[in-house]
């Protein structure tokens, strides 16, 4: 599909060179951030062709698209906001991946109206990070407020839906804020998701972590959590570190 025919007002196409994919972005509604690239990188490769993968709170479909080469099988992108789900559908067409990807435009609370429980191998989620505040409710940009704050969904709903979709021993992947780690681990364990791998992302070498990546296994054995080496985003010179450069631009 030609680029000029696929874009709507204020949209642009951004490229993730490391994965050779293009993503339709609109800063007024939703644009993927480094969090999406980091979560896709954290996912373990699996090239089984019959995998079933669901991306909850999918936004413009960036995380799922970034994984087109790393995971086999089919992807279902679940996004609440119609204008953002529409961007995801056109991004799939732009990358000629419509044989493997579908979009559901609905609340993740209703995901089992479309997908059976206990039927999915991998569930991904980059949810809203921030609890609702008076300020977030007043945000004039409703689309961005919903993407960032727990207005339309929350951590408990995300984890319950992830657990409900996953088969026994299925893998879930979540990106979130380190300051909510205690709550995240508690909610996961209450919903049969055993934490197995954690990575902390630091904006600079001397700064506290500001992003958390978590892998869980449904009905996994308790214990055996690995905290893998941290990733530093920027060096002292404010440039991306070599590791992050590679994630964005390839070797």
Question: Main traits of this protein?
Answer:
two-stranded antiparallel ribbon, 29% helix, nine-stranded mixed sheet, 9 helices, alpha/beta, 26% strand, globular, Rossmann fold, 251 residues
- Count of structural domains: 1
Question: What's the main sheet like?
Answer: 9 strands, mixed
Shape annotation: globular
Order of helices and strands: HEEHEHEHEEHHHEHEEEEH
CATH class descriptor = Alpha Beta
Mean pLDDT over all positions: 89
The CATH homologous superfamily corresponds to Vaccinia Virus protein VP39
Radius of gyration over C-alpha positions, nearest whole angstrom:
17 Å
Question: What are the low-pLDDT stretches, counting only 5+ consecutive residues below 50?
Answer: none
CATH topology: Rossmann fold
Q: Give the CATH architecture.
A: 3-Layer(aba) Sandwich
Q: What is the share of helical residues?
A: 25-40%
Amino-to-carboxy terminus distance? 28 Å
Beta fraction: 25-35%
Enumerate how many helices there are, as a single number. Answer: 9
The SS-based structural class is alpha/beta
Number of strands: 11
């Amino acid at each position: 599909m030609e680029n000029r025919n696929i874009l709507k007002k204020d949209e642009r196409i951004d490229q993730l060179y490391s994965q050779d994919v293009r993503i339709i972005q609109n800063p007024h509604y939703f644009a993927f951030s480094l969090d999406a690239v980091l979560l896709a990188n954290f996912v373990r490769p699996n090239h089984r062709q019959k995998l079933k993968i669901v991306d909850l709170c999918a936004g413009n479909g960036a995380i799922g698209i970034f994984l087109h080469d790393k995971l086999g099988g089919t992807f279902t992108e679940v996004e609440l906001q119609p204008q953002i789900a529409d961007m995801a559908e056109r991004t799939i067409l732009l990358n000629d991946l419509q044989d493997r990807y579908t979009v559901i435009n609905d609340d993740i609370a209703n995901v089992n109206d479309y997908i059976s429980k206990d039927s999915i191998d991998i569930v991904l989620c980059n949810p809203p990070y921030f609890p609702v505040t008076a300020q977030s409710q007043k945000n004039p940009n409703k689309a961005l407020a919903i993407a960032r704050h727990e207005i339309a969904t929350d951590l408990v709903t995300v984890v319950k839906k992830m657990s409900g979709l996953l088969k026994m021993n299925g893998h879930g992947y979540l990106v979130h804020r380190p300051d909510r780690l205690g709550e995240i681990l508690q909610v996961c364990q209450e919903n049969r998701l055993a934490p197995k791998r954690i990575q902390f992302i630091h904006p600079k070498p001397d700064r506290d972590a500001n992003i958390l990546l978590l892998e869980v296994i449904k009905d996994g054995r308790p214990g055996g959590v690995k905290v893998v080496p941290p990733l530093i985003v920027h060096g002292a010179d404010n440039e991306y570190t070599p590791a992050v450069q590679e994630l964005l631009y390839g070797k």
